[in-house]
């Protein structure tokens, strides 16, 4: 019976993850050495490209020394990152041997632990709480275990507000944050309108809350007319003319 490629890959992966025996196998040493050297190179290149300064460790999953395949000539060995695209967290490396005498392909699971300082809360924050300097700190975390994202600089969080309650010592991710409202409903605002010939300013009242750049409804308190205006700053909105 001929095995399909996915089934062959599954069988090989299961063989690699099987419990190890007590005797050594030169093939497992070759796989571990090749995978480790490849991941070292990939992680170093990733850190250089991202200008991050971080420490890392590489853990190769236990391989089955009973796996029986011929050793590969060193010049015929190659390795590629099967998944994910970035060498952080749980990864799979495809190790291939392609020589005239020996041909095989194996998938080696590993874990790349990348430790870096990220933005973490110092105390609980309520829903819609605005983040100040006292609310955050930089602490080391394993990026390979952070599936929800993270921030590398305090400036990325300061002045923003959290969408939901946040616990103390929690890593802040971008999808937890949103801009604080520049204008709140009921605020007095200055409505500006201009074109190439004329510019006018009039008093108004915000009928909705919004952030800088968003559009809200405002009321011209002189004419009582309701307009759609874009927020340009605290207490400032602009309408098209």
Write a short abstract of this structure.
The protein is α+β, with helices and mostly antiparallel strands. 16% of the residues lie in helices and 37% in strands.
Which percent band covers the strand fraction?
A: 35-45%
The count of helical stretches stands at 2
Sheet/helix structural class? alpha+beta
Question: Tell me, what's the shape?
Answer: elongated
Q: How would you spell out the order of helices and strands?
A: HHEEEEEEEEEEEE
Tally of DSSP β-strands: 12
Number of domains: 3
Secondary structure: helix percent:
10-25%
Radius of gyration: 29 Å
Overall residue-averaged pLDDT value: 87
Largest sheet: 5 strands, antiparallel
- Low-confidence segments, given as residue ranges, are 1-23
The N- to C-terminal Cα distance equals 76 Å
What does this structure look like?
The chain is an alpha+beta fold and 241 residues long. The chain folds into three domains: 5-113, no CATH class; 116-179, Type Iii Antifreeze Protein Isoform Hplc 12; 188-239, SH3 type barrels, CATH 2.30.30.760. 16% of the residues lie in helices and 37% in strands. The protein has two helices and twelve strands, in the order H-H-E-E-E-E-E-E-E-E-E-E-E-E. The strands form three sheets. Strands 1, 2, 3, 4 and 5 form a five-stranded antiparallel beta sheet that branches. A five-stranded mixed β-barrel has the order 8-9-10-11-12.
């Amino acid at each position: 019976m001929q095995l399909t490629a996915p089934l062959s890959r599954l069988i090989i992966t299961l063989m690699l993850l099987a419990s190890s025996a007590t005797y050594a196998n030169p093939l497992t040493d070759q796989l571990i050495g090749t995978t480790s050297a490849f991941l070292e190179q990939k992680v170093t290149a990733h850190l250089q490209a991202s200008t991050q300064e971080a420490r890392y460790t590489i853990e190769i999953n236990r391989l089955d020394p009973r796996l029986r395949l011929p050793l590969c000539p060193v010049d015929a060995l190659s390795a590629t990152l099967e998944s994910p695209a970035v060498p952080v967290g749980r990864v799979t490396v495809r190790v291939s041997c392609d020589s005239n005498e020996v041909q095989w392909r194996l998938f080696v699971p590993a874990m790349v632990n990348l430790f870096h300082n990220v933005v973490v809360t110092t105390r609980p924050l309520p829903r819609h709480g605005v983040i100040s300097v006292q609310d955050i700190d930089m602490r080391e975390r394993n990026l390979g275990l952070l599936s929800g994202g993270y921030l590398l600089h305090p400036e990325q969080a300061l002045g923003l507000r959290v969408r939901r309650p946040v616990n103390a010592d929690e890593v802040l991710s971008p999808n937890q944050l949103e801009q604080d409202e520049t204008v709140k409903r009921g605020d007095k605002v200055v409505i500006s309108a201009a074109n190439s010939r004329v510019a006018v300013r009039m008093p108004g009242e915000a009928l909705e809350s919004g952030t800088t750049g968003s559009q809200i409804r405002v009321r011209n308190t002189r004419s009582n007319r309701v307009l759609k205006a874009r927020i340009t700053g605290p207490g400032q909105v602009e309408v098209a003319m």
